[in-house]
Amino acid sequence: MVWELTPWRPFEFDRIRREMDRLWDSFLEGRPMRRGEEMREWLPSIDVSETKTDIVIKAELPGLDPKDIDISMTHDLLTIKGEKKHEKEEKEEKEENYHMIERSYGSFTRSIRLPKEVQSEKIAASFKNGVLKVTLPKSEEAKKKEIKIKVE
Predict the structure, then answer these.
(1) Alpha-carbon distance 115 to 109, whole Å?
(2) What pairs with residue 41 in β-bridges?
(3) Which residues are bridge partners to 125 per DSSP?
(4) pLDDT bucket at 123, cuts 50 / 70 / 90
(5) Which CATH class is domain 42-87+104-141?
(6) From its phi and psi, is residue 13 left (phi > 0), alpha (psi between -120 and 50) or beta?
């Protein structure tokens, strides 16, 4: 009997974890992930933070034009949609033969469930240096009330 040895690849776990994260993200967004979709879709990195008065969401969107970004709010779910278009070659340039393409293009959708109630009529968004910043003021009920303790 001949046994075939398979080399142990510790970095395969990272790839499997990324694929599982992508699967869960697509499941939680309510849309199935199709085979090969990871090659056409990209998801921007997002930070969600909180101050005493606001919830702040920052999304890295390098290479996007602000007119290609759509932000919507439904109940406690903030959705950011957009499309990063592939750069068009000028007619004068010769045809390029790529050796490697690592930049991602295409449309994306990110939905973030907010941890607190916000005042949707006062939401503000800005776009600077490829970073989208969405500021969501908390509702009065969601703001923490601080009580000072007097020391006698």
Answers:
(1) 19
(2) none
(3) 134
(4) very high
(5) mainly beta
(6) alpha
Which residue in 54, 53, 33, 56 sits closest to 43, CA to CA?
33
Q: How far is the CA of 48 from the CAs of 57, 59, 109, 111, in angstroms?
A: 5, 9, 16, 12
Count of CB atoms situated within 10 Å of the CB of 132? 21
- Structure confidence at residue 131 as a pLDDT band (50, 70, 90): very high
- Positions of E strands within the chain: 46-50, 54-60, 69-74, 77-84, 106-113, 124-128, 131-137
| β-bridge partners, 29 | none
Query: What's the whole-number mean pLDDT along residues 102-124?
Result: 88
- Look up residue 107 and give its two tokens: 């449309």
**Which of 149, 152, 150, 64 shows the shortest CA–CA distance to 104?**
64
* H helix runs in the chain, sequence order: 12-28
| The model's pTM | 0.63
Instruction: Give the pLDDT score at 38.
Output: 46
Q: Is the pLDDT of residue 77 over 80?
A: yes
